[in-house]
Amino acid sequence: MCVGVPMKVVESGLFQSICEDAKGARHIIDTMLTGEQPEGAWVLTFLGAAREVLDENTAKQISDALAALEEAMTGNVQVEKYFPDLVK
Questions:
Q1: Taking the complete model, does pTM exceed 0.70, yes or no?
Q2: In this structure, which of 24, 62, 64, 69 has its CB flanked by the most CB atoms within 10 Å?
């Protein structure tokens, strides 16, 4: 199973860009499928390649879901922290 990870472009390149994940780690990402993206753009990455261009809100929603999943695996998840729209 592959999980897409949103990353922000910090250095744009023609075929590869340096992107930053939610934890601040930088990765060299293949951008052949999305084309060159400007610095500050968000891309959804799988296995080191950008597969889709995202808006900032969608990137945040995916990042929150991944963070909640990581927390849930430790047995401690605060749903309201990551999904306030689901808690009433």
A1: yes
A2: 62
